[in-house]
Amino acid sequence: MKQIDERTVMFSRMLLKEGTKDYETYYSLHPEHKEVDDQLRAMPNLASPGTAMYNSLTAPIAEADFSIIEQLRPLCEGEVAKEQVGIEPEAATALVKKLMLHYGADEVAITEIKPYHYYSVRGRGEYGRAIETHHKYAIVFTKEMSKDLVNRAPKMSTMIETSDKYLKLGVMGLQLATYLRSIGYASRNHMDGNYLVIAPLVAQDAGLGEIGRHGLLLTPQYGGRQRLGVVTTDLELQADVVKKMNLSDFCDYCGRCIRTCPGKAIPTEKKVINGVLRYQIDQESCYTRWRSLGTDCGICLSSCPISQGVDLALLKKKDYKEIIRQYTEEYPIRPYIKEDYF
Predict the structure, then answer these.
(1) Domain residues for 242?
(2) β-pairing, 107-112 with 271-273?
(3) Which among 30, 34, 68, 141 could disulfide-bond with 105, CB atoms 3.0 to 4.6 Å apart, if both were Cys?
(4) Which residues pair with residue 130 across a beta bridge?
(5) Which residues partner with 139 through β-bridges?
(6) Model pTM?
(7) How confident is the model over 209-251, as pLDDT tens digits?
């Protein structure tokens, strides 16, 4: 699998400013993105007046979380203590997992870093810098998103829940990375807006779940209803064993998110992307819907049967028809018609 250049990711492209060297350079290399990107930048931003879901009282809740996240990003890296405290891989693994659960993570897993886990070039932060230093291990952890708030998608309540979980994951990651550096091991926290790694790929290779049709990690417990944090380190750890969960197979069968996506951004077929046959959403169509709504949408999460809870025995024996039957019996109408919670 080839590495991804973060500059091509929509969030990085939206930071480019007309008239700057980075703007001119990027669109000289990718002229196919210029027209749609300029149109998107002209639209109101997320949580802004003029968007469909804007509320002057509640939109600033999410904005406040993202403001704190922005202030924390510079802490993702730091000085490593010169003196190392010795610890065996088995004991280190147990300690790290116990510590992350103590900090508030719902699940924790570890994988050895592969080159494709990292972006090749930065698109946010130090724009254009090649990422050449890779740590040996990744510790990936999750935080469940409230089913009730996800089911209010695409309203502001869902974005408030998203921002809250990204903030909590960011703090947890900073706690772990800072601790590991203090005992002599190179470590970096990867948090919202300051990732060097692609979190869903790391989580999948750590055995937490499988990437779904919508490009997000699916887990048996929560479907796509969780956010991810990652800490990379050179501390010697033990990688988790990856087991087949049938989640991506269920995605092949289900396709409900295709029908409910308001931006028609979710694909019906797989394509070879970066040397791998997989689904890839149309990020321009998806993000256009975000900007018109003023939230991060989330309808694909709320309409996913796995996100609403599933009998794992049915998943294990691949009884996908029964999973769909139970889901449609419980949710004859799409679950995201609820009013805002906040």
Answers:
(1) 1-342
(2) unpaired
(3) 141
(4) 121
(5) 110, 231
(6) 0.96
(7) 999 999 999 999 999 999 999 999 999 999 999 999 999 999 9
